[in-house]
Amino acid sequence: MPDAPLTSAQLERLQALFEAVLEQPRTEWAAFLEARVPDDAPLRAEVHALLDAHERTETAFRSPVSRSTLIDPSTGEDRWIGLRIGAYEVVRLIGLGGMGTVYEAARADAQYEKRVAIKFLHRHAGSSAALARFRAERQILANLNHPNIAALVDGGVTTDGQPYIVMEYVSGEPVTTWCDAHRLSVPARLEIFLQICAAVEAAHRGLVVHRDLKPGNILVTDDGRVKLLDFGIARLLPVEGGTDTAPLTLAGSRSFTPDYAPPEQVLGHGVDTRADVYALGVLLFELLAGQRPFDLKGRTLTEIERIVCETDPGRPSDVIDETRAPLLGARTAARACAAVAGDVDAIVQMALRKERERRYGSADLMARDVRRHLDRRPVEARPNGIGYTVRRLIRRRRVETTAGVLVLVSLVAGLAVALAQARRADAQSRRATRVTEFVTTMLGSADPATLGRDVTVREVLDSAAMRADTLARDPALESEIRLVIGRTYMGLGEFAAAQGQFRLAVAAHRRSAPDGDPETAIALAEQSRAYEYLSDYAAADSVLTVETELLSRHPHRDRLAQADFLDQRGRILDRLGRSAEAEPLLAEALAMTLAVAPGRDSLLANAYANLGHATSEVGKLAESESLYVKAIAAAHRAFGDEHPELAAMLSPYAVVLERAGKFALADSTYREVLTMRRKLLGEEHPEYAWTMFNYADFLLGQKRYAEAAEWARKVLRLRGRTLAPTHVAVSTALKVLGQALGAMDSFPAAEASLRESLALRRQTLPEGHWLIASSESVLGGHFVLARRFGEAEALLVPAERRLVEARGERAPVVADARGRLVQLYEAWGRPADAERWQAEILASASRQ
User: Fold this and answer.
1) Are 133 and 119 in contact (CB under 8 A)?
2) Cβ distance 645 to 639 under 8 Å?
3) Catalytic residues
4) In terms of CB atoms within 10 Å, which end of the chain has fewer, N or C?
């Protein structure tokens, strides 16, 4: 190698070659190197130098990868163990790979006990490309939320510039090892495989292709739960396309594990979701047969290309032997082979097809075939001829087939019903396939040559939304596509665009089912949710009213869906100021969720929090605080220590703490949420703006007026950008800014801001809404400061009455309004009136 610094491509090639050598027996290293790179003596010399370093440190570590960069030359010990990274102390090395080193760490701040995994970027992988992949992995993990995907906890850069990611610690074994150790039967292995498919499908729904699925990245915990790890080389889009003409290596810009890579990835072409489907096929082959379809160990790159792209992978049942059978829970190889031959072989082979357009279009479609097999129904991977269908039916109806002619007649009748069901299932499957094909095309069409080099998710979605206009002739398909696009817009915080897609989905559903159906109700619920996030609660309530009427004719199919509807209905009523009506609905939703899904912490967190908000709005602060504590605990269990959903629990909890007078804890909680949302969502996301205006309001109450004004202005800078001019955050920020300016004696500017806030609320909210009365009360309070007592009284008295009617005697906003009346009459020299209103405040407090 030359003396000049190595390029990132040279470093990555060196690392890949080094790791490949370590897979060979020690006595064969030199011969292997000579065969792999016969014309590059400098490269061989660099690898030998790494091997020498490896030999010197091998006794200190177990994993056969490059570790010289981890050793402190002055002590000979691992440089990370014992160090404090944020709130965590590094405990031990648990894994190394081509790009990163992973350690176990423990919470070290005495707040609570928690183990995490911290991944550091290798020093030798510090190229701009590697750093970009590392940051991408952190963002991908932040965006993914699924019980079978290891969650992101934190991330950042150490004081000496070392990037790191803090992830959920998963105590488990690689899926192949775990299944063999427990001697799982073929059906049990397929159930485990369905968990893997669910995790991969969740990533695909988030527009992420993993690209490196393998047993080492799929762990199983002691209780049998799958956890998908390592999104280090995942991609939103196939950025390489097919334009890279450099020789193929095992690293460089085309990082992957050859044993699990499909032909298009091996050849350096662009990949989509079907690359992960191929890897799932290899994984399922290995789960069943105990080996991979191809033996690529020690092969040259040219040989790997030829084998993967040209050789038939065979069938898992063909390689199961007597040594494998006991690990599959079978007494003989014949029995083990019989459990795999036929359907399961066909499923594996369909996933492993060379032509990606002939594979399953998604992990979900592959999972459906696995489920069909487990349910003894025909699978899509095999031709659905009449003989095959009958055989599957007979296997499901063994008792009926043993009783002669009468049972034969029953079988024929049952067959007719089964075929009709199969046709309906086929129609649904075909539609699901078309949905997947559309999403795949959507990803693949995001060509940098068309949309520019740096393609954004928003651009991909906008392009897909326009393409969906061509589906009008198939309204059922159009509605499903619109829902997929709308939900992705929601994840990006593009709520207006999402609402437009949900509205079109509802319209398409009505064309396909004029009398309504449960699917139309689902689309209406999504549309209402988008309006809710836009703070257009009246529109959200209107849509839910339509949904309620529809559900009277087409009720929910399960109690969990019913609980979700009750929760959404109660939540909207709460936002409309009708918290007393909302409270029993939300309590019923929580009770139903606890009964139906007691272990679903993600659902319980939201149910506790929504009821907590309603109880706080009617003045039940102690009950509200207790509910939020439960919500946050459930969110920690479901999502880890840093996640958008956890922030969604902490933000209103800070408001409750403030109302309860726990100001120091409220302040620290607000700042925790701001830090979390800024890191995970960005400073222009609407959810970050929501916390900003709540914090500004808190600072106002603490008489930190300059800080309150600055935070309010930060919110207003987003007006017309990520916040619609009519968003509730805008009117609230204007209110807080006006109050802060008034407290600092800037009366004209304060009045202008408060009047703008009131006008905006009158424009966007229904007549009589409590927020309008609240704005009138606040403006009246400003007139008290300006000693315009008559104008103040004209606003404050009727505003207090309307707030009591809308929110109830015990609502915090009512206490605030009455406090302004006390200030008015004290400043005006009317002590009797001030005492009367002070007595009202005390009486309400005593009734809580």
Assistant:
1) no
2) yes
3) 212
4) C
